[in-house]
Each structure stands twice: as structure tokens, then as C-alpha cells.
Amino acid sequence: MTTPGGRAVEVRVPATSANLGPGFDTLGLALSIYDELTVAALAPGELDIRVEGTGADEIPTDASNLIARTVRYAYEAVGRPAPGLMIRARNGIPHGRGLGSSGAAVAAGLLAAKGLLAGEAELGDADLLRLATEIEGHPDNVAPALFGGLTIAWMDESGPQHKKLLVHRGVAPVVFVPDRTMSTSAARSVLLPEVSREDAVFNVSRSALLIAALTQSPELLMAATEDKLHQDSRAIAMPETYRLVRVLRDAGFAAVVSGAGPSVLVLVDGPGGRLDAARVVEESAEGSWRAHMPAVDFKGGTVKAPAEGALEHDI
Ligand code: HSE
């Protein structure tokens, strides 16, 4: 027996920015830019996907759709046959820009499966993170997409783990998103296979400092966002991003490559800082960069029963 046709859930997942400078493949921050979905069970084998919003034209609506694949993956993981699926997605997260759109799709598919499976099988937080990491390959985007806030993610012999932290209220993110995209695999292909002990120590010190800066001492953000593990080697793949990070840092803003790029994340520590950073970008940047000024999302992904009439909403 599979989930009965007609059972439906509503899911919302935040964008995420991974790495935050020194915390490569480890740190992530959830941002209040969202993908929202309604997912309903259909008769087995049926599939009806429609997407609207940011990047909708590029998203497959057949069985290769990442959300649909993830729902099936979750059902398989708990040993239940997957139902057919109706998916209505309203996307706010830009795709291929280093803002965790694929991690968000994976988190959304798992949360949808959790909701649809309610009463049939249990998917707890540890299961969600484990399955998400199996699909995504690294936990730094999926941990904040699922759980919100600032997350430290790591792997041990029992799988991926995470610790969620609350961000100091004086820290505000601003993201500059270019027109062009960058694939994570291309951005990973230019990474150096080895790093020196000196550089490793540099990043250990900055990552530790970054936790203090983001939770207690925002005035340390400049020093705490320095990195020698990945951003310099990625400059060749995204020179405009690299130059914008330099321009912003030279102007005193704690700028880093967002995830695998090509967006730039700035973490400011004062109320006017975001507009000041946007002014610097407007005056000095090459190409066009769209500024987003989200809050830190503290909730992470959510799944609930649909509001009355939600399934009639045809997009
Ligand atoms: N930590 C990953 C990377 C994030 O930088 O490749 C990709 O979203």
C-alpha cells in the first residue's frame, strides 16, 4: 500500500549560503528567500509538475525533477512504494548562483515525503539530514535549509551531523546575485587537491573566530571571513565574483563568495551597512548584480497540511 491519492502537504524551504568564507563544506546560513510548494499524492505512476517564479523555465517537469526524485528516494529509504505526485512550486531562490537552490529542492522533497508519509513511516531530523547529504554530496547547504539559522555540519562514522546556532541580532546579510550561473561541480573542479599546513591553520583559526563573530562579536567579521582554502583557486572560474569580493573587502565589508558562487555574500554588523555595501557595488562593480537583503531564517524548512482550498490554486 502506498500513500493514498489526494493526501497533500505544503512545504517551504529557505535559500542558504554555504562556506561563509573559511568554513568550506561546513558552515551554512539560512536566508529568508523561499521556495514554496504544494505536493499531493496521485495514483502510482502519475506525475503532474508545474513551476512558477525564479528560473521556472529551466526546471524539468518530468521524472528527472529533483523534488520528485527526492520524494521517491525518501519513500525507497523507508521501504514504501512511492505514490504518483502533483507538485506546484513557487520558486524564489535563484538557481545556479550559490544560494543553495539544489539543497533547497532536496530539503523540500524530503519534507514533502515526511508529510505525505505521516502515520505510515517516520522521518526524523537525523534521517532528513542523512538522506539530504546522500543526494546533495555535502551537508553544508542542506543542514541550514532543513533546520534554519547558522549551522555547523560535519561527518562522522554514523553519518552527517549538525549543530544549529542563533546569529547575533547585529549581523545582517546582503547578497549580490549576478546574471550568470555557475555549476557547483565546475567550481569544485578548480579546487587544489592539497593545502599547506600553514593555510589549514589559517582557516581553522578563521572558522573558529567566525562562530564567535556571528554569535557574539560581529565586529570581528572582517578577520573572521578570511579564507585560504577555496576562494582564491576559484577566481579563475568566476573572475568578476572574485574582483567584487576584493572591492567590497577593500572598502571594509566582510564579503565572501556565497557557496560555490557566483553570488557574493556580505555580512554587515550595523544597521546602515547593507545600503552602504549596495552603494559600493553600484559604483564599482563590473556587470550587473542584483542586491537581496534577506533576514537570517531561524526556522528552516517547514511542512504542514494545506490551507483550505490550496489544492484548487492552479498556477
Ligand atoms: N561547500 C560547497 C562548495 C557548497 O563550496 O563547493 C556548494 O553549494
Give your account of this protein's structure.
The protein has 315 residues and is α+β, with helices and mostly antiparallel strands. Helix content is 34%, strand content 25%. The protein has two domains: 8-157 and 298-304, 2-Layer Sandwich (Ribosomal Protein S5, domain 2), CATH 3.30.230.10; 171-292, Alpha-Beta Plaits (2-Layer Sandwich). It is built from ten helices and eleven strands. Strands 1, 2, 3, 4, 5, 6 and 11 form a seven-stranded mixed beta sheet that branches. It has a four-stranded antiparallel beta sheet with strand order 8-9-7-10. α1 (66-77) crosses α2 and α3 packs antiparallel against α4 (139-147). The longest helix has 19 residues, at 197-215. It is globular and about 60 Å long. It starts with 7 loop residues before the first strand and ends in an 11-residue tail after the last strand. Residues 311-315 have low confidence and may be disordered. Bound molecules: L-homoserine (HSE). The site of L-homoserine has 13 residues, from α4 and α5.
Question: What secondary-structure arrangement, pairings included, does this model have?
Answer:
Layout: E1 8-18, E2 27-42, E3 47-53, H1 66-77, E4 84-91, H2 101-116, H3 125-136, H4 139-147, E5 150-156, E6 159-165, E7 172-178, H5 184-189, H6 197-215, H7 221-224, H8 231-234, H9 239-250, E8 254-257, E9 264-268, H10 273-284, E10 289-292, E11 302-304
Parallel strand pairs: 3-4
Antiparallel strand pairs: 1-2, 1-11, 2-4, 2-5, 5-6, 7-9, 7-10, 8-9
The structure holds L-homoserine.
